[in-house]
Structures are given as structure tokens and as C-alpha cells.
Amino acid sequence: MQSKQLQRILSEYESVPLVQEKIASYFEKNKGAVCYLEVCEENNWKLIFDHLTIRTYSIEEASKPYENLGWKYDEKIDYRNEGWYAQIYRHSSFAPMFIDQSYEDAPENLKIVKKWVDKFGDKDFHHIAVQLPQGVDIEDAIEKLETKGVKFPGKITGGKNTRLRQIFTQAEQIDGLPFSVLELAQRGTDKETGNLYLGFITDQADSLMKDSVL
Length: 214
Known about the structure:
Blueprint: H1 4-12, H2 17-29, H3 31-43, E1 49-55, H4 59-62, H5 64-68, E2 72-79, E3 84-90, E4 97-102, H6 112-120, E5 127-131, H7 138-146, E6 164-168, E7 173-174, E8 177-178, E9 181-187, H8 202-211
Parallel strand pairs: 1-4, 5-9
Antiparallel strand pairs: 1-5, 2-3, 3-4, 6-9, 7-8
């Protein structure tokens, strides 16, 4: 029986079937994400998508279907020295799209995104980031997921009481290669605006990129 939380999310994305289908496919293939649904049900947490991530050879091409559905380019996050970059697309009604690619001239050992797309293509979400409910610490969410057998090979990025704390679950494997992960995101207040911080932090994103192959 499908989780009520997931049913609600899929219903919310009914007007954008392209994205709705990718969300459904992601939860079918990622056990950590299914365990998070169980944690939400058990603790009366609302399932909130923080962002949806696509890996691709070409951000320009991969972004077009989403732009046609109302997502608009917001910013570029550049990790030239680490061999990749990302562009963020935001929508007034749905979670942001985080679309990334490797630089063509990057050293082979840094082409994490390209190697993933070589194997899996760019049709599936590499990961969905869930935003933890306000008042829930990321350590608490990790503990609850670990009791269900979910593993976290990397470390939490972002210190306590900072504006953004993140971690990836261990990647699901397909043919012995790391496929998809679940990201937990704990968002805090932006001291400049007094509002919930909704941006991305360069150093943390690159750290997570490396964790995605653990």
C-alpha cells in the first residue's frame, strides 16, 4: 500500500506528469526514501521536498522540459576546480530543480556526474532532498532511519544552528555502481533576512557530490 504522504505529493504534482512520474520512479528504486516515508508516518512529519536533482551531459538541453513547465533559471553554482557545475531552476508551486553536469575538460577522476550519466542516463532523479520539519534536528532523523537499516557513509555538512545542514544516505546500487541517494536537509534562519534560508552553499554541495559515490 502506497504511503499517504507519497500519495499527497504525487497528487500535488499531477499537473506536471513528467515530474510526477520521475518522483514515483525514484521512490520505487530508493529504499532509504521509502524508509523516510515510514518515519514521516510514524512521527507525524509532513513530507516536504527541498529540491529535485537531475544529472546530465548538458544542463541547457536537460532544463528545457522543466522550463516549459514553469521552472525558471535562478542561479549558477560553479565548482570549476572540482570539475562540475549546477544551475538552479525555481517554480512558484513546486520544489526547485538542481541540474548539474561535469565540465568537458575536467580530469577523469572528477567527472562524477558524467560517469553517472554514462551508466544511467538523465531521465531519473539522482536524488530527492527532503526538508526536515522545523524543530527536527538532522541527527534525530538520521537516528530514526538508522534503526530501519539506512546507512550514512559520509558526514553531516554544516554545523549545528547554521542555516543549512545536509547529508546523503548510502547510494542504492545497480550493477554494482552507486545509483540514487536520499538527501536530508535541515534548514535554519537566514540571519540577513530573518526568513528560512532556501539557498545552497558551495562547499557543502561539493562535499555531498563526493559522498554520492560512497
